[in-house]
Design a protein that fits this description.
single chain; about 170 residues; alpha+beta; Jelly Rolls; 2 domains; four-stranded antiparallel beta sheet; elongated
């Protein structure tokens, strides 16, 4: 466990069912969350009714950690699967980071990696063709685990059928 995650050692767990909302856009920021198991998607609803996935937090990851420095959340947090989270009041989390430079530096390291990941995702999403997006993603991360292609489709901003068509095309041409 990373030093920053230790601030959750005494936090009570909370269970969410698939589809449950942890918080909504414009809700006041009152807590910081850690995913113990499951998956939370940070989503922003678009004018056409679709949802833009901004980030997916999985086991051991913080949820909307940058919101510690905001008054309100900028998106919705929705459980994609049955999920268990740990919750700390915002002031408790901030005090823990003030008291432990190791915890604060650990979270800074996570935030720096998140910035790098988001910059790479932006560059991938700028590519027009599914094949080019997939090539860029594979160059950065390599092939996913067998069940991970669904996450790849989401990460490169294409539908699952479009990704599977591209994978099938590659299989048939090799």
């Amino acid at each position: 466990m990373s030093d920053w995650q230790s601030i959750y050692d005494n936090a009570a767990p909370r269970d969410l069912a698939k589809g449950d909302t942890l918080f909504r856009r414009d809700d006041p920021v009152k807590s910081m969350f850690l995913v113990r198991s499951g998956e939370i998607a940070l989503e922003r609803s678009m004018a056409d009714g679709t949802a833009l996935t901004l980030h997916i937090a999985t086991d051991g990851m913080a949820v909307a950690e940058a919101s510690l420095f905001a008054d309100t959340y900028h998106c919705d947090a929705v459980a994609r699967y049955p999920t268990t989270i740990a919750t700390l009041p915002r002031n408790v989390a901030m005090n823990a980071f003030r008291a432990s430079s190791d915890a604060a530096l650990g979270l800074m390291s996570v935030l720096a990696r998140d910035v790098q990941t988001q910059r790479a995702r932006i560059e991938i999403l700028r590519l027009r063709r599914v094949a080019d997006r997939l090539d860029a993603w594979l160059d950065l991360y390599g092939p996913p685990k067998e069940s991970g292609w669904v996450r790849v489709a989401d990460a490169i901003g294409v539908s699952q059928p479009a990704l599977y068509r591209e994978l099938a095309r590659r299989r048939s041409s090799s």
